[in-house]
Amino acid sequence: MALAINIRADNDSAGEIERLWDQVAAFEVEPSMRALRYRPHFTFAIYDSPRADEKAAWDVMQAAIAGETQLRIAFKRICWFEGSPLVLWAEPEVDETLVRIHGAISAAIDPAHCRPHYRPGAWTPHCTLGTAVADERRDDAMAFARAFDRSIEVLFDVADCVVFPPVRIIAEQRLPS
Question: In DSSP terms, which residues pair with 164 in a beta bridge?
Fold first, then answer.
């Protein structure tokens, strides 16, 4: 079981990302994001240690978000992480708050304990749209990403700490507006 520290959209604006989930699901072997039963989110860190200290991780997240308010994030591009399967994600406009929260978490918990893609220098802020693009739909999925020409805004209003799979919220805090 893994432990993740996130910020999620737990309001009506999340529907913009969830509609993209449904569109991306057409390229997947099986729809990946709806299956999580968890709202659109940014993950700052994932720890795989079976001894991951849930309370310590939550304390770190609370310190990282101290004084922060809800984040309104704009997305104008869909990108992908190479691999098999291909992963599609929404790219946020540059937001210093996301970078600051990630940095605070990384400073408080040794990044060597974190999955490599979430470590400083490797972490890419992203909101995942699909994690299981079928190899035979890869070109179609990348064409879909390149053709995205809208701008959407999503309000990220809850910080949380979860364990997965399946996703189970172990602590959460609504951010002030």
Answer: 2
